[in-house]
Amino acid sequence: MSTIQRQIVWNVCFSVILAIGVTATFIVVFPISEWEELWNRHFMDIPFVIFIPAFSIAVGILLGLISGIYWRRQLQHVEHSLHQLEQGRQTPQYEKTSISEMQSIAVQIERIGRQMSEQAKLSQRLATEKVEDQEARIQEIIEQERNRLARELHDSVSQQLFAASMMMSAINTTKQGTSEDDREAKQLKMVEEMIHQSQLEMRALLLHLRPVALKNKTLQEGIEELLIELSQKVTMEIRWKVEEFPLDKGIEDHLFRILQESVSNTLRHSKANKLEVLLIRRDELVILRIVDDGIGFEVDKMNAGSYGMQNMHERAVEVGGTLKVVSVKSKGTRLEVKVPVMINGDGVND
User: Fold this and answer.
1) Where are the domains of the chain?
2) Is 154 exposed, middle or buried, given 0-12, 13-18 or 19+ CB atoms closer than 10 A?
3) Which residue, among 115, 111, 117, 119, has the nearest Cα to 94 in the 3D structure?
4) How far apart are CA 55 and CA 44, in angstroms?
5) What is the pTM of this model?
6) How far is CA 176 from CA 63, 183, 187, 190, in A?
7) 282 touches 243 (CB < 8 A)
8) What is the side-by-side strand order in the sheet with 237-242?
9) CA-to-CA distance for 127 and 342, rounded, in angstroms?
């Protein structure tokens, strides 16, 4: 039975009982000499004995309908609020009502909603912290393993390649003074070049596995340290121009990682003889430019399939900058990153 039906039945029963009670009281106070008068007397052309119960039933139906609709609305509001809580949404505000019980229910629902909201926030925060902690531990394990591999490669393969390169260089130097077969000399020269290229590949791989971090150094200091170390290990001519100016740590880190990625690509793929690095600040723009004279590549194909190129582009975008790569076959490659520097009212980087 619905709320409206229940209210109608209760109100009709109450109205009929009330009418019977009032009629009985009236008859006791004012006795009727002849009972036929109840039938003979009319009200609105209806016998009095029929009008009283009919009127009571009509009033009961009307009152039951009104009260049923009212209570159905109240219960529907409660049901809607509980459904919102079940779905994890914010509960709507209750309309002001004069019924203290409904006000108490509204207050309790709002309190439960706030508690559930706080619990949800706490659960989400704990889940986020758990994931971040797991990612930090995984990253730490990866970093340790990368360092271990880098050490092993440096202590074994890299040293062996260096020794092989020195031996081949000595053999080729000896061969130059003899009249041996030119074909054999060319083959030895090719082997020497292959070993040299393998050394470059190994140095690039080591740079990927164990990238140098700034570690309380400025970007300019990190660039100079990286390029000085490379110039001591490779035969490539390396030049750089680095201006001194302050930068936010986030921008410094991203620019340094872009430089590392670009230098690694140059060592591995470009076959370049020269590498130039420029870091300047012009018109509130920080410009990092890396230029080599290598074999070049097709930029469109490299952008579509290169993880390193995509990684550099994402790093530039993360600090609000742009990355542009121009490469010409047999002419070289030019990579340029431009990052705007935000200045506040005091002339200091935001």
Assistant:
1) 3-92, 124-210, 215-350
2) middle
3) 111
4) 12
5) 0.50
6) 119, 13, 13, 14
7) no
8) 237-242, 274-282, 285-292, 332-340, 322-328
9) 34
Supply 293's token pair: 């004279």
Q: Give dist(CA 246, CA 220) in Å, integer.
A: 9
In terms of pLDDT, which residue wins out, 78 or 39? Answer: 78
Long-range contacts of 83-87 (CB under 8 A, 24+ apart): 84/113, 85/109, 85/112, 85/113, 85/116
End-to-end CA distance of the chain: 68
Give the range among 31-40, 74-83, 105-114, 124-133 with minimum mean pLDDT. Answer: 31-40
Q: Each residue of 314-339: pLDDT tens digit?
A: 989 999 999 999 998 888 999 999 99
**φ and ψ of 325, to 5 deg:** -125, 125
How many angstroms separate the CA atoms of 337 and 319, rounded? Answer: 11
Beta bridge partners of 285: 282, 340
Q: Which two tokens stand for residue 232?
A: 């001591």
So what CATH class is 215-350?
Answer: alpha beta
